[in-house]
């Protein structure tokens, strides 16, 4: 794969996209489907840039091109908007709103600015509120000429069948160990070999989880999570250790990274579990999915959040123990 691409792996998806651009009948709506952290966001932006690139010219910067529009979570309030403007971490609204989609649709009344193609990225589409979904559906049913939609979905099943049926699916695969190693060496070259190995083992094929593992120093948390998942925690001792490892006032990004790592651990154990444990793993995973959707915007107490994560892991390991 070309070195100027900002993602690793996903060779099949990229070749499929290039083939579609070069065809006479480019589909107008694409569903980029795969778990969090697989590189869908970076892929979508460079794919959009390739789509609008003028013949004979270099691929433009997707952040600067007037015919690439990105709908994503907005800052939660004015204070968070200031943090974003200053380049600081900021909290976002829970959903992509109907107003965002309607504003995008109003833009579609005009022709593309610099060529005959325009790209609309919705990141992620499975976080749109109900009104936004209905508004988008109308645009997908009657797309303006030259307009192409890229819908990112961590959980495609959350999208309406009427949305999915209008999209061509582009699936994103987990990365292998060599590809994860490449991502870490590229983005975190200071990480030592032992840390890289631990991050790759915890990542379950997700470069996002691997990078978070290193950036947020999640090695101790991961070890305790796996111990709870495989041994249970009837006396709450391991959950207490997990809370201590997380810290009294952890950064929001560290908490979210721990949530994603717990979800990956449950998903990885699922194919190897007994039928009875599979049900518990699925239930715990579903609860973590809900928690992951709420955590970026709800003001959860950090100690209670990590105890809830530990409780869900314990409930998957021990039939008699339920999450609290």
UniProtKB/TrEMBL annotation:
One of its GO terms (biological process) is DNA-templated DNA replication. GO terms for cellular component: DNA polymerase III complex. Pfam families: DNA_pol3_delta2 (PF13177). SUPFAM superfamilies: P-loop containing nucleoside triphosphate hydrolases. It comes from the Bacteria. This is DNA polymerase III subunit delta. The lineage of its organism: Bacteria, Pseudomonadati, Pseudomonadota, Alphaproteobacteria, Sphingomonadales.
